[in-house]
Amino acid sequence: MIRNVAILGATGSIGTQTLDILARYPDRFSACCLCARSDAEGLFPACCLCARSDAEGLFQLARTFRPRTCGLVVEPKEIPDDLRGIEWFFGEDSASRALAVSGADDALCAVVGIAGLDAVLTALDTCERVLLANKEALVTGGHLVTEKAKRLHRALLPVDSEHSAIYQCLQAARGNVPSRLILTCSGGALREFPREQLANATVSDVLKHPTWRMGSKITVDCATLMNKGLEVIEAYHLFGLPEEKIEVVIHPQSVIHSMVEFADGAVLAQLGAPDMRVPIGYALGEPDRLAFGGERLDFTRMGALTFASPDTERFPCLAYAREALRLGGSAPVVLNGANEEAVAAFLRGEAKFGQIPLIVRYALDHAELKPISCAQEVYEADARARLLARACLRHL
Ligand code: MG
After folding, report:
1. What is the pLDDT of residue 38?
2. What is the residue-averaged pLDDT of the chain?
3. What is the pLDDT of residues 10-64, one digit of tens each?
4. What is the distance in A from the centroid of ligand 1 to the CA of 191?
5. What distance in Å separates the CA atoms of residue 341 and residue 347, rounded to the nearest whole number?
6. How far apart are the CA of 230 and the centre of ligand 1, in A?
7. Among 205, 225, 347, 384, which has the minimal tally of Cβ within 10 Å of its Cβ?
8. How many A from CA of 231 to the centre of ligand 1?
9. What is d(CA 127, CA 47) in angstroms, rounded to the nearest whole number?
10. Tens digit of pLDDT for each residue in 375-391?
């Protein structure tokens, strides 16, 4: 049986690496639906890996993979003649409409930012399995997503490398409940940046991630440690452990992708070369492991593996994320919305690196926190947080 896979966010870093795996297993998978924003000037400037606009990128992918349906948020001037056999959808809801008629068994959600929440909630309506590469959906609407998945008997599979590592360790744990989750963190591009220069770090300083190749939004989040804060919230929703049992450890070599501790003190870890195709392939193929010819670890050459506590004085966003998780309700939505605004402003050259945590702090301090019971309340809290972030940015 061939599984039909929809990819939401097909032209980004995760989307193209997913297609790389699918292309190696034509007898197991078919890419039935490809969606992208097509918005080179969109929320986040084009990432460092894909220079083309999303529309052109999606045309190329559609030529290679021949999906049944394609979705583009921004309608292009025209669809090339050779791609008119594919059913095309345009507009803000293009992904949900393209997905609904694609016959997808699985949906991989790799949309950037809070836009992923709608993609994930929509995918849960129609697909047996939702592969989560977007963490903002769980950060902002975690209870909505996990409750919907449970109600409709859908599988939620983590694609984030740390959460995939924990998931893999838990599958080896034979039902034993973990006493602690240990998320590893590379420390980002600015881990050793001189303290006095940190506030004025440039976009090019920040986009030089030491170990992982990723899109620009997440690479900035890695440098502020907000990414790890969002991942603590993501782990809370995926694995159901309280915030104080989710630890973060700086591990610059990115060889151990995360760890799980049990009642007897034993720790299981998942190791490997830093390559997102491992967690993507595991989510697609589990319990099978899909070979893709990636780099192997050479233990005799890798040198020392080191570990340290995160420095939340230099990088306060991790502490803000924990605070938002403890506060609950709309606090994580406020954290995320303010961060998305701050990161977009930084990438446009309108905010300094050091202002990102100040903007997030301002929004958390000034937002009216409310309970969240539906997606509409998430979007309203998100909109208010963005207004606060923009107000803060004007006064900085
Ligand atoms: Mg991660």
Report:
1. 58
2. 93
3. 998 899 999 999 999 999 999 999 999 854 434 444 333 333 467 899 999 999 9
4. 16
5. 10
6. 9
7. 205
8. 7
9. 28
10. 999 999 999 999 999 99
CA atoms within 13 A on the CB side of 18: 34
Å from CA of 238 to ligand 1 middle: 14
pLDDT confidence band for 74 (50 / 70 / 90)? confident
Between the CA of 43 and the centroid of ligand 1 the distance, in Å, is 21
Q: Is 64 helix (H, G, I), strand (E, B) or coil?
A: helix
pTM exceeds cut of 0.90: yes
Gap from CA of 151 to ligand 1 centroid (Å): 27
Tens-place pLDDT, residues 256-274: 999 999 999 999 999 999 9
Is there a contact between 246 and 236 (Cβ–Cβ < 8 Å)?
yes
In Å, how far from its chain's centre is CA 136?
A: 7
- Distance (angstroms) between ligand 1 centre and the Cα of 219 equals 10
**Rounded distance, CA 224 to CA 279, Å?**
23
Cα 32 to Cα 104, 125, 376, distances in angstroms: 6, 17, 29
H helical segments located in 225-374: 226-239, 277-285, 317-327, 331-347, 355-366
CA of 86 to the centre of ligand 1 (A): 34
Distance 339 CA to ligand 1 centre (A): 17
Between β-strands 180-185 and 256-261, what pairing exists: parallel, antiparallel or unpaired? antiparallel
- As given in the structure block, the two tokens for residue 373 are 């019971």
Residue 344 has pLDDT above 70, yes or no: yes
Angle at 156 between CA 150 and CA 160, to 5 degrees: 145
- Asked whether residue 251 carries a pLDDT value surpassing 90, the answer given is yes
**In 10 A of CB 354, how many CB atoms?**
15
Give the mean model confidence (pLDDT) for residues 223-243. 97
